[in-house]
Specification:
The chain is of the alpha+beta class. The protein has a three-stranded antiparallel sheet with strand order 1-3-2, with helices on one face. The protein is flat and about 30 Å long. The chain starts with 5 loop residues before the first helix and ends in a 7-residue tail after the last strand.
Length: 67
């Protein structure tokens, strides 16, 4: 199902809901999952840390004006 825009549409809806509530989104993605990392980075998430096998990313409403 990759490449059909489904993940992007879901995450955009989640980001929009977070933006309206001025909330932050945190998630972890397997470091080897390049497609997921690209998606999250494209949507404005920023890496904030790593633990074995995972990268932690955050999206903040207070920096959404930069998107």
């Amino acid at each position: 199902m990759r490449g059909r825009g489904i993940g992007t549409a879901i995450m955009q809806a989640i980001v929009e809901e977070a933006r309206q509530g001025t909330r932050q989104i945190r998630l972890k993605v397997m470091s080897g999952n390049a497609a997921a990392l690209r998606l999250y980075l494209r949507l404005g998430f920023e890496p904030v840390g790593t633990i074995p096998f995972y990268t932690e990313l955050v999206w903040s409403a207070d920096r959404s004006h930069e998107e």
